[in-house]
Amino acid sequence: MIILLILFNFTPMHSYETNLTGTLSLLLYVIFFTTFLIFLPTKGAGGWSPLVSNKYQWLQIDLGERMEITAIATQGGYGSSDWVTSYLLMFSDSGRNWKQYRQEESIWGFSGNTNADSVVYYKLQHSIKARFLRFIPLDWNPNGRIGMRIEVYGCSYRSEVVDFDGKSFLLYRFDEKSINSLKDVISFKFKTMESDGILLHRKGQNGNFITLELIKGKLFLFINSGDTKLHSTNSLINITTGSLLDDQHWHSVLIEHFNKQVNFTVDKHTQHFHAKGEFNYLDLNYELSFGGTLAAGKSVPFSHRNFHGCFENLYCNGVNVINLAKRQKPQIYIMGNVSFSCSQPQTVPVTFLGSGSYLSLRGSSGQDEISVSFQFRTWNKMGFLLSSNFHQHSGGLLLYLHDGKIRLNLFKLGKQQSDVTAGAELNNGQWHSISLAAKRNHLSIMIDNDVTSVLHLVLPMQIYSGDIYYFGGDSDFECKNPFGGFQGCMRQISISNKVVDLILVQQSIFGNFSDLQIDLCGLIDRCLPNYCEHGGECSQSWNSFYCNCTNTGYMGATCHSSIYEQSCEAYKHRGNTSGFYYIDSDGSGPLGPFLVYCNMTDTAWTIVQHNSSDFTRVKSSNRENPHTVFFKYTANTEQLQATINHAEHCEQEFAYHCKKSRLLNKRDGIPLSWWVGRTNETQTYWGGSLPDVQKCTCGLEGNCIDSQYYCNCDADRNEWTNDTGFLSYKEHLPVTQIVITDTDRPNSEAAYKLGPLLCRGDSGTASRQKGFLGCIRSLQLNGIALDLEERAKITPGVDPGCPGHCSSYGNLCHNGGKCKEKHSGFSCDCSFSAYSGPFCLNEISAYFGSGSSVTYNFQEYYTLSKNSSSHAASFHGDMTLIRETITLSFRTTRTPTLLLYVGSFYKEYLSVILARNGSLQIRYKLDSHQEPDVFNSNFKNMADGQLHHVKINREEGVLFVEVNQNAREQVTLSSGIEFNAIKSLVLGKILENSDVDQETMKANSQGFTGCLSSVQFNHIAPLKAALHHSSLAPVTVKGHVAESNCGTLTGAESTLSETTHSFADHSGPIDEGEPLANAIRSDSAIIGGVIAVVIFILLCITAIAIRIYQQKSLYKKNETKRAENEDCAETALKTELTVQNRVNENQKEYFF
């Protein structure tokens, strides 16, 4: 432990020197420690007490070198009535450019003493690293004077610094041996007066880079974990934090990277985010530069200036980089003029604290020219900057801020002669410069040293300088200031081309002032941290901040309170009638509002629709090829969960109609159909039953049509029956997925309908639930992130991390398949892959006959209920793309031919064709008023009967094409970057009228004959949808399209192994009413109905035969016949259900 006792004896002094040293005597103990704090009460007579007690007195301490200050203590003057009741603490490295100590981003004044003898001790919440301390009394004993005795606690502070001059930098090159670090930590401090400059740039051999750049006083962290040669905007991250960092004070930076998690901290403000790209690490095997780059702008998508300022304690993964540079180690390259001591700029700022703050400076009177320049920064839109009366009060000038712009008024004998405006958004908190020059009747104004925008004026008067220039505040100017005084900072004030020494102003040697803080800029950013919630926009003035809540759905000072109710129950209490309303299910929480339908009956029902509310008919499904449907709701998962948790009761009706289609298999207990709720758990109970009970409603009530089974459908009869009821266990709702596997036997089929989610009531009581089983992450309490891993280490039954099967076996899912955790294993979800199979490895291929076509419709797929059509547009909207990825494989011998076409509602399109010579052409038309961009592949003739693979990737205006896994080719598009309102994707032949170019039209006239395989457009697999999900997907098949393994065979074998599938659409909607409810209980009605059905089916068969015969007729006629056929199929299903219902009712009525 080191204790240093310093005794100062001062003699009475006056004026300026009193401020620096004080009067009378001071007994000061400065205690430095290495391990813990020590408090030593002051003893003896004396203390500091200036002759004049006012707010311009201070006590300044020079510690000799930079120290770490952790605590302070004060007493009043010994044996006197002199003590300070509150004070400010300032600190500085150089004795200039002071900074006020703040606690938690607010100005923090210390409470002082209440008498002369008691000791008031403060442990600083965050320590100060400084050489100079300044104590400024704010209030003191009204019956005495200012008086202080002070103790300072701390320890020695050692640091290593490096100074960059704006042209120099350090280059740190790693060992040649590649080091792929899974965890990287870079930390340092910096200070600068410049608002722009590159602090750090790191790149690897794969094109990855990380750049830290100061832009307009804020830090921007750019991370690209992809290949910069591709200029991929997907892999580029831009994170911004910090503000007003060009204040020549130390600011700390910490960058932590572990796997894809990145933590970016600036002055205790931390942002957490995940890096994009394919890599879990950023390669560190090349070079890392500090303070600039070798060639700024070449390896990164931006250009910029090197850093001008100082770094302190620069560490990279524990390596002291500055120490390596000082010792001239070979891995460090010093570029330019770098020094290892920090220079101290002598610029003196001044802070205007209030509307009455002003600075009065003398100039040369009677001169025929005026030259005034200065810099300022402020948040206020209005403020008085400068005024001056001309010689002998012949006129004057008034320079002020108005709506963030500079305005200059010139007056002559009280009358305004000129009013000019210059600049914009000058109240953004940045330093801005103003230069005002006038000579005789010519005047010019320059803003921010921009010589190209200098404003020149010819005046109707001669100008002769006055003797006083007023900055800020009110003055004796003949036209009073209507805008209020200036609040902000000024520096580098120059009059008649002479820089004003503001230290002389502080010493009262030159000029006059009121309510100023000289030698510091007290501007703070009240929008950091941003207290505006829910996307509210923060703006500020000198004293406060404001939140603009427009279009956020929230209101209040910080956009905290939702303008919408939490449920339909709340709207009912307000007297609203049935209709569509926005609800905010978590109130002021992070979830946004969403649209629901409120049915205001005796009970207010909140109705949340999904994308498949009609009856759906199912055939040919089994365990190997199940019928699976996913339901998408008009609210996301979190919003649905909040709505359900807030409700007193929720339910969802599920109607399952069956004919030889079972729900449960009694023999082995394995369910044949199931559903999944929001917990992602498989459920095997059905409407009206209870969880964990594999039964339907009739099984609970004991009235199933066959008492051996617990569901009507499990009787497995060759007749229509149903199991219908409401699912009402809240924790499992809503239904998100249904799987049906028992409709592949003869005469076996099913039809189902899932109703909307219905909730009622407001629940304010805690629910009794089972304990949570799973993983939790990103838990925040009052906005503070909790360290769950550390807490898990000391909590029984809780383990850190979230290990799962996918972490070990997830790489077994190929071709875009997603690994999904299960309790006892994992599965591969191939929903968004063009492949199928357990591991998404099975190619899906089809043989296209002449004139055949597969059309996938992007628009008008999802439908809502009849009474929600007004909501359809807001639910779906146009589909606009700025990037797409397309993969396909093909084999053919015909040219020219069309492989793929994507069209839009705005006559924009993409076509992939084989030209007459067999070469691949990609034609993009992203502007309906321009000709399409054409990409021609350099590959040989591709109509050779062999299988070819094509991958197309567009990133805005850049197109990349890869053929047969060879090197990528690149071309820049000129027709635009947005693919607007895409309508449909076509494989084979375009059957509807399309406004395409001549080459695409020629290729389309031939259609496509051959094999297409593994076709994918972004997350959509149209060929897979046509072959495996034609009843669910928005896909239309025309002509002969047969599933085949042609994508895996050689050209000779491909035509010998085709397996044909039918794609006729038999999945039309069934009546929304109960299909089995309208029975007429008479045998004659049954017989008549059966005859009618037979006749009607014969007519439909005849229509189908006519349609096949006329298959080569016009496309429009084909569409008409297809519609008729679909109507027949739909009517047949309705009729068959009705007839079967009558038979069932008669059996129930007469069965003994």
TrEMBL record:
Ordered alphabetically, the record's keywords are: Disulfide bond, EGF-like domain, Membrane, Repeat, Signal, Transmembrane, Transmembrane helix
Please list the residue ranges annotated as the EGF-like domain.
523-560, 803-841
Q: Name one GO cellular component term.
A: basement membrane
- Membrane-related topology note: Single-pass type I membrane protein
Regions that span the bilayer: 20-40, 1085-1109
Record flagged with keyword Transmembrane: yes
Mind telling me which SUPFAM superfamilies this protein's record contains?
Answer: Concanavalin A-like lectins/glucanases, EGF/Laminin, Fibrinogen C-terminal domain-like, Galactose-binding domain-like
The residues the entry assigns to the signal sequence are: 1-15
Main subcellular location of this protein, as a coarse class: membrane
Q: Where is the Laminin G domain?
A: 161-342, 349-521, 853-1046
Q: What sequence ranges are listed for the domain F5/8 type C?
A: 48-155
Entry GO MF terms: calcium ion binding
Q: Which InterPro entries match?
A: ConA-like_dom_sf, EGF, EGF-like_Ca-bd_dom, FA58C, Fibrinogen-like_C, Fibrinogen_a/b/g_C_dom, Galactose-bd-like_sf, Laminin_G
Gene3D superfamilies annotated for this entry?
2.60.120.1000, 2.60.120.200, Galactose-binding domain-like, Laminin
Provide the Fibrinogen C-terminal domain boundaries. Answer: 559-610
Q: Where in the cell is it found?
A: Membrane
Q: Which family does it belong to?
A: Belongs to the neurexin family.
Recorded protein name is Contactin associated protein family member 4
Q: What is the organism field in this record?
A: Vombatus ursinus (Common wombat)
**Gene, per the UniProt record:** CNTNAP4
